[in-house]
Amino acid sequence: MADREKKFLLHPHAAEAWRKMKATAKSQGIELWLVSAFRSIERQNRIIEKKKKKGIPDRDIFRVSAPAGFSEHHSGRAIDISTEGYTALEKEFENSEAFQWLNNNASVFGFILSYPRGNEYGIAYEPWHWLYKR
Ligand SMILES: [Zn+2]
């Protein structure tokens, strides 16, 4: 699917839900940008290997990155969202109007926040990461 600058891959149902959600948000003055979608197992492996080469301990890597094969991004149903004026994939996104909007409206389109603050998986809080669950 085409977004601003890159092409992203998503499961067709998730892609359609995303398009509707983005358009609805826009009609209400909220910009939602897609910053990542489908990611292959190989790509996840490369991300983790790169972090290991930098000397980042496993404990820290796996708090923020799922092991290859276990990322919700492999399903084509997970998206990372950003908006104007915020750095992608940073917790400050929670202060944006876009995040407030998502909290109030994303479930209508079938998207849920996978890793809320203090989640049961022990995964770092990710206000930008939403999963299409329908
Ligand atoms: Zn994500």
TrEMBL record:
InterPro entries in the cross-refs: DD-CPase-like, VanY-like_core_dom, VanY/YodJ_core_dom, Zn_M74/Hedgehog-like
Limits of the D-alanyl-D-alanine carboxypeptidase-like core domain: 9-132
Pfam families, alphabetized: VanY
GO terms assigned for molecular function: peptidase activity
GO biological process per UniProt: proteolysis
Gene3D superfamilies: 3.30.1380.10
Entry coiled-coil feature ranges: none
Official protein name in the record: M15 family metallopeptidase
